[in-house]
Structures are given as C-alpha cells and as structure tokens.
Amino acid sequence: MDGDTLLSIGELARRTGLTVRTIRFYSDRGIVAPTDRSPAGYRRYHPDAVERLRLVRTLRDLDVDLPTVRRVVDRELTLPEVAATHAEALAVRIRVLRLRQAVLTVVAEHGLTAEETDLMHTLTQLSEDERGRLTEDFLDAVFGGAGELPVFAAARRSLTPEIPDSPGAEQVRAWAEWAGLAADPDFRASMRRTVEDHTAELARRGNTAGPRRDVVAVVRERAAPALAAGVDPASHRADAVVAAVAAHHARTLGRADGPEVRRLLLDRLERAGDPRRDRYAQLLAVINGWPAPESLAPVLDWAVRAVRARTEP
C-alpha cells in the first residue's frame, strides 16, 4: 500500500489500536478529519492519520483536554509547551493526592474524630503563605516577646518546620500531623511554660548571658547510666542521681534544695517528658530532612519516677 492510498476507518482502527467508535468521535470533532468519502459515504483517511491518532491517544492518556489536543495536532501549540503546562498541573494534582493520603493515614493511625479529621484536612490545604503564618503563630504563642531575645533565636529556629517545594509523601504526612499538634492549645501552653521558665532564669541572672545548662541535659547525663544499669528509680541507688539533679535545679532557681524545689523539679520534668514533645521533634526531623532525634522519653520517665518517689508522701 503506497502513501497515497486512503484508509478506511476499520483499517485505521486496526493500525492504531483505537476503536472505530473512538476514531469516529475524534473525527466528528475535527481532530482527525477524513480526507474523503467513498461512493457509499464511508470515511477515508490519509495514512498520516495513523500518527496523528497515536499522538492524540498519548495526549489523552496523559489527561490533556480535547481542545488542547486539537491545537497540538493542528500545530497551533508545540508539544513541549503543552508538556510543560500539563507537567505543572500534574505536580499540583500529585501534591493534592499526597495531602489527601496524609490526612487519611493520620486519621487511620490516630483514630481521629470527625471534627479532628476536618481540621486536619483544612490544615493540609493551606497555601505556602498560610503555612508560614501558622508556623509563626505557633512560635509566637510559644515564645511570645521572649522570642526577640538573642538567646532564644536558635531555639526558635530549631522548632521551625521548613517543608520543601516538592515534599515526599512522608514529609507531607508529617506536616499534616505537625499542623494538628501545633494547633493544640494545651501543647502550646506546655511549650510556653518551658520558655517562661527559661526567661525567669535569665531575669534572675540579670539577663546577661545564655541559659545555664538545661535540667534535661543534666538528667540525661546523670540518669542515663542508672537507667542502663537497671537501677530502680525508687531504690536508694537512685538517691545520688536525684540529689545531683535537684541541686542543679535549686541553683537555677536561686534557692536551697528542699521539698518545694523538688516539687518544681518534678513539674518541670513531667512537662519535659510530655510524649507530644518527643513526637514534635520526630515530625520536625522528617519535615526538615534532619537525622532522627534521640528519644529522651525513657530517661525522663525514669527521672520523673525517681523524683516523685522522693517528693510525694
């Protein structure tokens, strides 16, 4: 068959793998028009229609709309132009699907209520500017005016999520959960209390230097070996650890060690051991692409039990 021989619609279907009905549909819309008709009125197509239809099928498989397909096959638009436009649109759709997957995963894993699910869905639909405002709102609620002090600048940065322009599925999922956690008023209040403790410490020291070594760091140094050695937090073997941590906290408060100092220490350690803080750090690491943080939950739990055993009647 030479290049000038016209093809029937059936032959065109055989060569392209499209159905006669589909080719007729494209033909009726002028995307692949027949070159001529037989004496009996049957459509006849130039052999070039084979490649034209293959291009149409490819573009439709890529979800390119029919008006755009027609402009491409009529050479009103170049294929690279269309590809760029639709690649951008596809990227948006992928992001939306990732967000939906994230919401559903968090709902399934955490057993959220209908109201919590609605809030989670709303949070994941935020624009980049809206995400930024949510982050700033959370950090402002945590740090307040103290956030302007140089000593807290690094702490504020260390709590800031920075989701990339093209996040992975895990990052999207982490952001969805982070947003819900950051919006929790009780969690905000707990974080704010810690900042207030540090601010009060600075005020007592004249606000002239950075914070003294945090009590959590002292607990990790003192309690971790005891925990690893299997020391019962209620046993006398834990006395020295509690005494050292309490003495540090007493110096921080500018007071002598005693029942009240230990009560305040217990309160501080219970807040530091809030599992939501551990989760916050884990989510932040996923969002920002940081190494997974060390969990202090076991050490803090041991210290809380040890201090409580020597504080409560």
Q: What's the end-to-end separation, in Å?
A: 101 Å
Strand content: under 5%
Q: Number of helix segments?
A: 15
Helix content: 55-70%
Residue stretches low in confidence (pLDDT < 50, at least 5 long) are none
pLDDT average, as an integer?
86
Large-scale geometry: rod-shaped
Instruction: Report the C-alpha radius of gyration, rounded.
Output: 33 Å
The number of distinct β-strands equals 3
Structural category is mainly alpha
Helix-strand sequence: EHHEEHHHHHHHHHHHHH
Strand order of the largest sheet: 1-3-2
| Biggest sheet character | 3 strands, antiparallel
Essential attributes:
3 strands; mainly alpha; 3-stranded antiparallel beta sheet
Description:
Helices cover 67% and strands 2% of the residues. The chain is an all-alpha fold and 313 residues long. It has a 3-stranded antiparallel β-sheet with strand order 1-3-2. The longest helix is centred in the N-terminal third of the chain and has 32 residues, at 79-110. The mean pLDDT is 86.
